[in-house]
């Protein structure tokens, strides 16, 4: 079972993503409510991939992505953004994100991005 860390400042979004991923055979090994916590939990838990919200307190998702990529260049991170932040997509991909999901999303949107990580 592939492991995932979910980073989002909204409890509801962590729950929605967690439910989708668990229902489809992924194990949620941790959750983070800000970018700094995401970096710390990534180092501690070593998940096989991360879903990372862009807009979070303390450290935003883009900065957390960059920090994690410096530590582990092979990390697999899917960025999650709100409508209106689509202009961030290219910046995230350039920084090393492996996928990008726009809220509100459907289950199929999430699974499509996870499948692109080449686990299947």
UniProtKB/TrEMBL annotation:
Residues of the Response regulatory domain? 3-118
GO terms classed as biological process:
phosphorelay signal transduction system
Signal sequence bounds: none
Q: Which CDD domains match?
A: REC_CheY
The record's InterPro entries line, in alphabetical order, gives: CheY-like_superfamily, Sig_transdc_resp-reg_receiver, ST_Response_Regulator
**Which keywords appear in this protein's UniProt record, sorted alphabetically?**
Phosphoprotein
Q: Does the keyword Phosphoprotein apply?
A: yes
Q: Which domain of life is it from?
A: Bacteria
4-aspartylphosphate sites (modified residues): 53
Is Phosphoprotein given among the entry's keywords? yes
What this chain does, per the entry, is described as: May play the central regulatory role in sporulation. It may be an element of the effector pathway responsible for the activation of sporulation genes in response to nutritional stress. Spo0A may act in concert with spo0H (a sigma factor) to control the expression of some genes that are critical to the sporulation process.
Name of this protein: Stage 0 sporulation protein A homolog
